């Protein structure tokens, strides 16, 4: 029968585990913020092109925009009927896109969070999005196998 560890032993093991984890972080990296607000798992995160905002998509059917300087939420984007798997900013930061379990891609105003347009055409959940270098094309990948290119 295994012996029960004391609290002191558990604390020492936890400290050692944290130290080992921190040993793998490149010099200069330290925890700055822990962003809390989604009520379910987060599936996708992406930085805005200017690096000031982080967008996160979640199983709670929302996208949250975070002010990284302050570590605070800016706004919550709603409108999906299923999990949000992917988020992507246009290169100029004017448009944020998101893909969901509900098989749609949504385009949002990158500054205000206002919904701009919904793209339909996939027959499976949209799991990945990527803009072309100039922002004129959007690629989407879904459970339905093909990659689709939108203009």
Tell me about this structure.
This protein is 11% helix and 41% strand. The chain has 1 helix and 11 strands; from the N terminus they run αβββββββββββ. A 4-stranded antiparallel β-sheet has the order 1-2-3-4, with no helix packed on it. A hairpin with a 6-residue loop joins β9 (126-131) and β10. Residues 9-15 have low confidence and may be disordered.
Succession of helices and strands: HEEEEEEEEEEE
| Largest sheet, strands/sense/barrel | 4 strands, antiparallel
Structural domain count: 1
Strand fraction equals 35-45%
Estimated helix fraction: 10-25%
Shape: globular
**SS-derived structural category:** mainly beta
Got a strand count? 11
Across the major sheet, the strand order is 1-2-3-4
Kindly report the average pLDDT value. 87
At CATH level 3, the topology is: Methylamine Dehydrogenase, Chain H
Report how far apart the termini are: 65 Å
Query: Radius of gyration, rounded?
Result: 19 Å
- In CATH, the architecture is 7 Propeller
Please, how many helices?
1
Spans of at least 5 consecutive residues with low confidence: 9-15
């Amino acid at each position: 029968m295994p012996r029960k560890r004391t609290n002191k032993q558990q604390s020492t093991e936890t400290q050692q585990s944290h130290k080992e984890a921190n040993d793998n972080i490149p010099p200069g990296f330290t925890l700055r913020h822990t962003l809390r607000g989604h009520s379910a798992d987060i599936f996708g995160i992406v930085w805005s092109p200017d690096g000031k905002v982080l967008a996160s998509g979640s199983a709670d059917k929302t996208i949250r925009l975070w002010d990284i300087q302050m570590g605070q939420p800016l706004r919550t984007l709603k409108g999906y009927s299923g999990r949000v798997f992917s988020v992507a900013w246009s290169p100029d930061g004017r448009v944020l896109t998101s893909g969901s379990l509900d098989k749609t891609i949504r385009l949002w105003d990158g500054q205000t969070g206002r919904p701009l347009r919904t793209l339909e055409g996939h027959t499976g959940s949209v799991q990945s999005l990527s803009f072309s270098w100039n922002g004129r094309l959007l690629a989407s990948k879904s459970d339905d196998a093909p990659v689709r290119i939108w203009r």
